[in-house]
Design goal:
Layout lengths: L8 H6 L1 H18 L1 H19 L16 H25 L9 H10 L4 H8 L3 E7 L8 H18 L11 H13 L11 H31 L10 E2 L13 H29 L11 H9 L11 H21 L17 H16 L10 H13 L5 E2 L1 E4 H14 L11 H12 L14 H20 L6 E5 L4 H13 L3 E2 L8 E2 L2 E6 L2 H15 L2 H10 L1 E7 L1 H7 L1 H22 L2 E7 L11 H6 L9 E7 L1 H7 L2 H20 L6 H26 L5 H8 L2 H5 L21 H10 L10 H7 L3 H10 L1 H16 L2 H5 L8 H26 L9 H29 L5 H18 L4
Parallel strand pairs: 1-2, 1-11, 2-3, 4-5, 5-8, 8-9, 9-10, 10-11
Antiparallel strand pairs: 6-7
Helix pairs in contact: 2-3, 2-4, 2-8, 3-35, 4-35, 4-36, 5-25, 7-8, 9-10, 9-14, 9-25, 10-12, 10-14, 10-17, 11-12, 12-13, 13-14, 15-18, 16-18, 19-22, 21-22, 21-29, 22-26, 26-30, 30-34, 31-32, 32-34, 35-36
Length: 899
């Protein structure tokens, strides 16, 4: 199958990896699937490529799909899915997804061109915090085993880059890659059992262990060279997995405890391995090197009396550190390390105590020569790792819905005899009551009271968080996010719950209160975002809250991309998020607190996806301030952090964008900013009206969506522990944003990423102003770039093939007609605003990437439609259901950012 990866000659010459891996995949299909399957696949591929090229006579009348049996269909779908996976790998290797200038060195140079020196950068970094937060949101359809095989291929390709012809084990390199592709071919791609929270924890732990632990210290070492100084560990990692309870009844105290315990085990195991390697390396002898007394004391305290190491104090010191760290592992996790210590040691009380011992060793090495042995190399990376990851590995966020907090606090108040009906109180009465309770350290709960299952579970969670603080240190949990935060009382209720576990302490003797965990509102809908400044102004206006915030120095607010998009459409969501960020900045300034925005972005453009480098830079000036957290979800985790090289590229991009957004001057004048904002208000208003009219104002639209797209089948996928809907309702309002966006992508409509924008662009009269905004305003430039990518990946000709799945054909035709008209308006309006003759004309690498994929997606969509028809007609052959799920997997893999 030498031509499997050949949709166009230009695509091949631009990425030889795709040609090479595609040829090997064709060989695997021939060897393991047989000559018949190989020929069928090649016929379907070439016919689809011809259609994509627009060759005469290449239409849908002879796709080759009708000749496939059900067994052939399953095998064919796997083949196309694997090609897309290998194409993703090839593009990542060739840097197709990397952006020019998206590195710290380039950002520093760019800032210097504006007269902003490195001292200003270092000053910003001294109080900066940049955190990618990994969540378990279910958009990753591939099994971890598939991703592991892909990553092994990536490692082998690196050897090939280095001119190697054999692996370290002596295996011929081409044969080793072929073998990994063959293993992929014979690995079951679908999960048979539903994921449990523990599975999600273990899956994400692999990224922390294999990627973040080694990558972050290496990045810091690079940045030290660029900056000429050693910044503090401002780039860290976070996780929701094991702490996110919003709509997931399976996350309770045991899951939170398990997540933290496994993180601790992974971090300490990494440190122990590094210490073991250092012990082998640091063979310095007192007979040949001067050793400071502090190192000698550390060696003496180790208990290592081996005669063979008597003159090797660094090795003896490291043996003692190893023994203490092994004891720490036992104390914190109850398990011994894989390589037990040969000495006895007292557990370290904190990561800082471990770091102090490592610094003593580093300072000893620096005392002689030119200091080359001191903080560079493996020891320097280990010290940085301990600073960055502590004993907890990743900060675990807690999250719950405000409605749950209301019920739990109401029950606590009633049981304690404080207030019989808290839920009946208005907002002012609630605030007054909650403030009285926060002024006292007296808990409301009692171990002698009988609580509902919900209340007992929530109390257990906060007590588990308090226990984690005592065991792993306060950095293990620092954020408590409140979904559907709509009032000040929503924030105060969380502080009440934290007080039950001693995580909120009322001030005594005039001292301000202390909050070990920060209550963070999540503003999700358009109305929430508009109300955010007023809510935060009122919250900061409470003296006890002002004291806590000023003592901490910053406060976080989370803004949600997914639900705001589902609520108001793409451009209104994007603009509302921008305006909320802009309006919050003076509120925080007046409160004397740094603003830290937590961006709840997903993979798809309809959920905030697209270039993070461009998106961060497009934030309103003053809203970043060196502090930003961003969710990384589902398939995006593997795409951005699946290999160390790709992870370094993406983490550096996030960091450089934050530097630029925080320090670079605004690219437009205040006058233009005002003009552009007024224009955006008009665009947003018209886009919102069009989107709401279609999605929420059109009779039968809910049924149209549920029958046109594979939403029912997606809900049955074993890709996450959380239900697809928040309630049993089938209303769009109650559907989670992830399946909403994911379903539209599968049917190639991608409606959440563009609908309504075309109406707004068409109705906007000042086309010259629109073009000026698109060219010079970072915000609109980023928004339109994402819109353009979605339009290029959508295909309403393919989407029309799904129309027969809708029962009301007359209604379906009418709704689909409106969608087609909206797409045409968005397409034409975008080209006019950006001055292009075709989509992606100014983004040739992305255009090539998408054009390469389209011929491999079309047959999958056509097969999916036929299988959906048979499934919904009642055919119960298990292969039909498996084929649908495989097609979902394959289409998502090919589209990349679809969920």
């Amino acid at each position: 199958m030498a031509t499997l990866a050949s949709p166009s000659p230009s695509a091949i010459t631009q990425n030889p990896d795709i040609r090479y891996l595609g040829r090997l995949l064709g060989d695997v299909i021939r060897a393991y699937g047989g000559e018949k399957l190989y020929k069928q696949t090649e016929y379907i591929r070439s016919a689809s490529v011809d259609r994509a090229r627009g060759l005469q006579g290449a239409d849908l009348t002879d796709t080759g799909l009708d000749a496939l049996s059900l067994d052939d269909t399953l095998a064919f779908t796997r083949g196309f899915m694997l090609f897309s996976m290998l194409a993703n790998l090839a593009e990542d290797r060739q840097g197709v997804t990397a952006e020019p200038g998206a590195d710290v060195a380039s950002a520093v140079a760019r800032l210097e061109s504006h007269g902003i020196g490195r001292d200003a950068v270092l000053d910003l970094l001294s109080h900066a915090l940049i955190v990618p937060v990994l969540t378990a949101h279910p958009t990753e359809v591939r099994r971890k085993s598939m991703i592991d095989h892909k990553n092994r291929i990536a490692d082998l390709m690196l050897l090939k880059d280095a001119g190697r012809t054999e692996t370290d084990d002596g295996e011929q390199l081409d044969e080793a890659i072929f073998r990994q592709i063959a293993l992929l071919w014979q690995t079951r791609p679908l999960r048979r059992e539903k994921l449990f929270v523990a599975d999600e924890i273990e899956n994400v732990l692999a990224y922390f262990r294999d990627t973040f632990l080694p990558v972050l210290p290496a990045l810091y070492a690079r940045w030290e060279r660029v900056l000429g100084a050693r910044p503090h560990s401002f780039l860290r990692v976070g996780s929701w997995i094991g702490g996110d309870r919003d709509g997931n009844p399976f996350v309770q105290a045991p899951q939170l405890e398990f997540a933290l315990k496994r993180g601790c085990q992974a971090a300490i195991a990494y440190y122990l391995d590094a210490l073991h390697a250092l012990g082998a390396e640091l063979s310095l002898s007192t007979e040949l090197a001067h050793v400071p007394q502090a190192v000698l004391d550390l060696a003496e305290a180790s208990g290592d009396t081996s005669p063979s190491r008597r003159d090797e104090p660094y090795r003896r010191a490291l043996s003692g550190i190893y023994a203490r760290l092994a004891a720490t592992c036992v104390a914190l996790t109850g398990t011994a390390p894989a390589r037990p210590a040969t000495l006895k040691g007292e557990a370290y009380p904190t990561p800082q105590a471990l770091r102090r011992d490592l610094v003593i060793v580093a300072q000893g090495l620096a005392s002689e020569g030119n200091g080359a042995l001191a903080t560079g190399g493996a020891l320097g990376r280990l010290i940085r790792a301990v600073e960055t990851f502590g004993f907890h590995l990743a900060t675990l966020d807690m999250r719950q819905n405000s409605a749950v907090h209301e019920r739990v606090v109401a029950e606590l108040l009633k049981q304690a005899g404080v207030e019989p009906d808290y839920l009946a109180l208005d907002e002012y009465a609630r605030i007054a009551l909650l403030r009285r309770e926060l002024a006292s350290n007296r808990p409301l709960g009692s171990r002698f009271s009988a609580y509902s299952e919900e209340t007992a579970s929530e109390l257990a969670i906060v007590h588990a968080a308090a226990a984690a603080h005592r065991a792993y240190g306060p950095p293990c949990i620092t954020h408590y996010i409140i979904s559907k935060a709509e009032s000040v009382s929503d924030l105060l209720e969380v502080n009440i719950l934290l007080k039950e576990a001693g995580l909120w302490q009322a001030g005594v003797d005039g001292a301000p209160p202390q909050a070990a965990i920060m209550a963070i509102p999540l503003f999700e809908t358009i109305a929430d975002l508009e109300a955010a400044p007023a809510i935060m102004t009122a919250y900061f206006g409470l003296p006890e809250i002002a004291g806590v915030v000023q003592a901490r120095g910053h406060q976080e607010v989370m803004i949600g991309y997914s639900d705001s998009n589902k609520d108001g459409g793409y451009i209104t969501s994007t603009w509302s998020l921008y305006k909320a960020s802009q309006a919050l900045e003076p509120v925080f300034a007046d409160a004397g607190a740094a603003m830290q925005l937590f961006h709840g972005r997903g993979g798809a453009v309809g959920r905030g996806g697209g270039s993070a480098f461009a998106a961060i830079q497009a934030q309103p000036r003053g809203s970043v301030q060196g502090r930003i957290r961003i969710t990384e979800q589902g398939e995006v985790i593997a795409a951005k952090f699946g290999t160390r090289d790709v992870a370094m590229t993406n983490l550096e991009s996030m960091t450089s964008a934050t530097l630029l957004a925080s320090l670079e001057p605004e690219g437009i004048s205040p006058r233009d900013a005002a003009r552009f904002a007024g224009a955006m208000d008009e665009l947003s208003k018209n886009a919102f009206a069009a989107y709401r009219d279609l999605v929420y104002g059109t009779e039968g639209f809910k049924e149209f969506f549920r029958q046109l797209t594979p939403i029912q089948e997606i809900s049955g996928l074993k890709i996450g522990s959380r239900p697809a809907s928040r309630t049993r309702s089938n209303a769009i309002e109650d559907l989670r944003a992830i399946p909403w966006v994911f379903s539209w992508a599968q049917a190639r409509v991608m409606l959440p990423g563009w609908y309504g924008v075309g109406h707004a662009l068409t109705q906007f009269e000042d086309k010259a102003l629109l073009a000026d905004m698109a060219q010079h305003w970072a915000f609109l430039k980023s928004a339109l770039a994402n819109l353009e990518m979605v339009l290029a990946k959508s295909d309403l000709g393919i989407a029309a093939r799904y129309l027969p799945l809708v029962e009301d054909q007359a209604g379906a035709e009418a709704i689909f007609g409106r969608i087609k008209d909206g797409w045409g308006q968005a397409h034409d309006g975008l080209l006019a605003a950006t001055g292009q003759s075709r989509l992606l004309e100014k983004s040739p690498a992305l255009e090539t990437s998408i054009r390469l994929r389209l011929p491999y997606i079309e047959p999958l969509n056509l097969l999916q439609v036929e299988l959906l028809k048979r499934h919904r007609a009642g055919e119960d052959d298990a292969r039909i259901k498996e084929g649908i799920e495989l097609s979902i997997n394959a289409i998502a893999t090919a589209l990349r950012n679809s969920g």
